[in-house]
């Protein structure tokens, strides 16, 4: 164990992405994370594609740095063991539909009786309150409900959902923030344990702050704008002479001035039709066409070097293969190798952010189902015979 959260104890009874991602982030910084799964079935993520040697690649990465145990929380005996396990934990992550734990008999009163100071992070699709609270919470629908999907894509085509579980990762970040802030309040100021209510849609909606204020004050409804989807001009994705895609960003007047001079259009720096972003917004189509034609003269490598030398922000649009070969990723060890019992070495994203004094580590990939049953339940005082009996009874 190493990292600034060494000694912190986290119990993860959630499934799939958002809440488990939050627990994994705490594990990256040294927290002891115990993941609880249904006996015989486990987390649905264990079956996610792609697979290799009957092992789920997604599971290997999203459940890193966790001990895994099996425990049926729907059965009374399983609940008794759960509450016993909960007694010395600092944080509990759950993401069942609101009311599910209570329906099983795991009420907040019982949780507080077992551990008055625990921080309970409750992740759901629509939150613990409101008319949609009991609806199933899935990332794709929550992303659409947040308003994000509506503005994503080309203006003459249907809206696009993100190709990754973006809302789950964003929600996981907010869940992590909630846990850390609540722990700080508890441990530094002597505050009480509390519940953190995190919803998928609100986490994504929080990123829509400019849209909210713009609609409130100006009645603006942002539509899909494709590559023009930016508050600055010119910003967008352009193709080079060798058919590589590059993204150019001139989000400030200063960076636009550098671009104008590089393009041989220094007069734009002082011309009131182009010298401010507000003026450039009114001439978006003209400027985008000019930039497109200029970028199309160069190969990607020479364009990158030219822009880098002149302080113009531009970047290739990378595939994952490009990322694996990039010296920046290699220099910062953004991709690390971790041992896996079946797959051998597995490459994963490194710990982010990087700490100078107490860096986090990735100590293991996703564990096998119930791999730590004996270790964890023995620490609770169960003998090997009792553990075997619990397994036969389907409790663990």
Automatic annotation (TrEMBL):
It comes from the Bacteria. One of its GO terms (molecular function) is CoA-transferase activity. The keyword Transferase applies. Pfam families: CoA_transf_3 (PF02515). InterPro entries: CoA-transferase_III_domain, CoA-Trfase_fam_III, CoA-Trfase_III_dom3_sf, CoA-Trfase_III_dom_1_sf. Keywords: Transferase. SUPFAM superfamilies: CoA-transferase family III (CaiB/BaiF). This is CoA transferase. It comes from Lysinibacillus telephonicus. The lineage of its organism: Bacteria, Bacillati, Bacillota, Bacilli, Bacillales.
């Amino acid at each position: 164990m190493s990292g600034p959260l060494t000694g912190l104890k986290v119990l993860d009874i959630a499934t799939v992405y958002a809440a488990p991602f939050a627990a994994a982030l705490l594990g990256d910084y040294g927290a002891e994370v115990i993941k609880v799964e249904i006996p015989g079935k486990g987390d649905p993520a264990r079956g996610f594609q792609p697979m290799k040697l009957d092992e789920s690649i997604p599971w290997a990465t999203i459940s890193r740095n966790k001990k895994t145990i099996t425990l049926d929380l729907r059965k009374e005996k399983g609940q008794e063991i759960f509450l016993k396990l909960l007694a010395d934990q600092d944080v509990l992550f759950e993401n069942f539909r609101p009311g599910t734990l209570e329906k099983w008999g795991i009420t907040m009163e019982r949780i507080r009786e077992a551990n008055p100071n625990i921080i309970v992070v409750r992740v759901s699709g629509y939150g613990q309150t409101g008319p949609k609270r009991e609806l199933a919470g899935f990332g794709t629908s929550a992303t659409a409900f947040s308003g994000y999907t509506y503005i994503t894509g080309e203006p003459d085509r249907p809206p696009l959902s993100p190709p990754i579980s973006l809302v789950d990762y964003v929600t996981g970040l907010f869940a992590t923030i909630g846990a850390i802030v609540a722990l700080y309040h508890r441990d530094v100021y002597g505050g009480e344990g509390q519940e953190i209510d995190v919803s998928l849609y609100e986490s994504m909606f929080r990123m829509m702050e400019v849209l909210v204020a713009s609609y409130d004050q100006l009645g603006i409804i942002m539509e899909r704008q494709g590559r023009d989807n930016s508050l600055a001009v010119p910003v967008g994705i352009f193709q080079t002479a060798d058919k590589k895609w590059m993204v150019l960003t001139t989000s400030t007047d200063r960076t636009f001035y550098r671009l104008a001079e590089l393009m041989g259009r220094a007069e734009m720096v002082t011309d009131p039709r182009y010298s401010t972003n507000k003026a450039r917004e009114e001439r978006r189509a003209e400027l985008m066409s000019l930039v497109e034609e200029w970028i199309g003269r160069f190969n990607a490598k020479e364009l990158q070097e030219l822009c880098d030398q002149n302080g113009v922000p531009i970047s290739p649009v990378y595939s994952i293969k490009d990322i694996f070969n990039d010296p920046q990723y290699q220099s910062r060890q953004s991709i690390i190798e971790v041992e896996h019992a079946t797959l051998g070495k597995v490459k994963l994203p490194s710990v982010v952010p990087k700490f100078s004094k107490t860096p986090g580590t990735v100590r293991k990939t996703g564990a096998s189902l119930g791999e730590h049953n004996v270790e964890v339940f023995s620490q609770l005082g169960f003998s090997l015979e009792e553990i075997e009996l619990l397994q036969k009874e389907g409790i663990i």
